[in-house]
Amino acid sequence: MTTPNLSILLYHRIAGDREKKAHSVPVAKFKSHMGWLKASGHDVISIDRARRALFHDEPLERRSVVITFDDGYADFVDHAFPILQEFSYPAVVYVVAGLLGQPARWLADGDRDGDETIMDANALRLIQQGGVEIGSHTNSHPLLHRLSPDERVLEIRESKSQLENVLGLAVESFAYPYGVYNPEIMQEVIDAGYTTAVTVNRGVANHSNSPYVFSRKAISWGDSPIGFFHKLYLDNGFKRRPQQGLVNGHHY
Ligand SMILES: [Zn+2]
Predict the structure, then answer these.
(1) Residues whose CB falls within 8 Å of the CB of residue 236, separated by 6 or more in sequence, listed in order
(2) Residue 1: its pLDDT value, please?
(3) Can you tell me the distance from the alpha carbon of 101 to that of 79, in angstroms, rounded to the nearest whole number?
(4) DSSP secondary structure of 33-67
(5) Would you place residue 244 in the very low, low, confident or very high pLDDT band (cuts 50, 70, 90)?
């Protein structure tokens, strides 16, 4: 049996309906995305189920998606969480573990203002109890390839144990800041005990050649219904983001 088309959707912030920022999707629009997934007969599955389907031949019955959120913005609790609960959809939030309850500092040196805040420990426990998986997005959201091996250990391993202390259970999923990885970084993620890692490479998850370099499809503010379905059904070509572009104004 071949695995049906499997997409991993990448959201950042679900914001108030009047906020127009490239990395934000308004609440009403996010709610329609979830409604369209349901109406079009998609199954929403966990990242681990995706791993088992693609790399251990566990069958998927229908077209499936994984819903992921990067960074862990505090307003997730008010904006995205109630909608996910309404649809009973699982999701994974990759949190910057060293900035719980603090401003998203890495944004401040780029094209955004850095006034956004990361969820605190209580918020993480609340959404976890409501069916949201918490993954690590490092401690401070650095460009991992620019760090020494020792600094990378702190970012990759200690973010995991810090989140595990907060949550009281294993943290198994990782997202590379800015989508930056190389063979050494991948190996460090594997050695730290994660079972999956996601990138910002564009494409269906089926094209991923390892559970540590899952491709995703970024959903942004400007996505109309047609754009959303285009990404879901048609936009399947693999495209690795050029790393230099990541530093100049893209803050994944
Ligand atoms: Zn990020």
Answers:
(1) 5, 203, 204, 207
(2) 57
(3) 17
(4) HHHHHHHTTPEE--HHHHHHHHHS-----S-EEEE
(5) very low
Ligand 1 centroid to residue 57 C-alpha, Å? 30
How high is the pLDDT of residue 247? Answer: 40
Q: Cβ contacts of residue 208 below 8 Å, gap of 6+?
A: 54, 214, 215
The predicted model gives 206-222 an average pLDDT of 88
Mark 138-148 as b/e (b = at least 16 C-beta within 10 Å): bbbbbebeebe
Residue 152 Cα to ligand 1 middle (Å): 16
Place of tokens 């059904």: 233
CA of 241 to the centre of ligand 1 (A): 14
* Domains, the chain: 6-247 (3.20.20.370)
* Distance from residue 87's CA to the centre of ligand 1 (Å): 25
- Centre of ligand 1 to C-alpha 179, Å, is 8
C-alpha of residue 110 to centroid of ligand 1, in Å:
13
Separation CA 194–CA 138 (nearest Å): 12
Q: How far is the CA of 176 from the centre of ligand 1 (A)?
A: 8
DSSP string over 149-200: HHHHHIIIIIHHHHHHHHHSS---EEE-GGG---HHHHHHHHHTT-SEEEEE
As a whole number of angstroms, the distance between CA 204 and CA 217 comes to: 7
Mean pLDDT (the chain) is 88
- Going from the Cα of 71 to the center of ligand 1, the distance in angstroms, rounded, reads 5
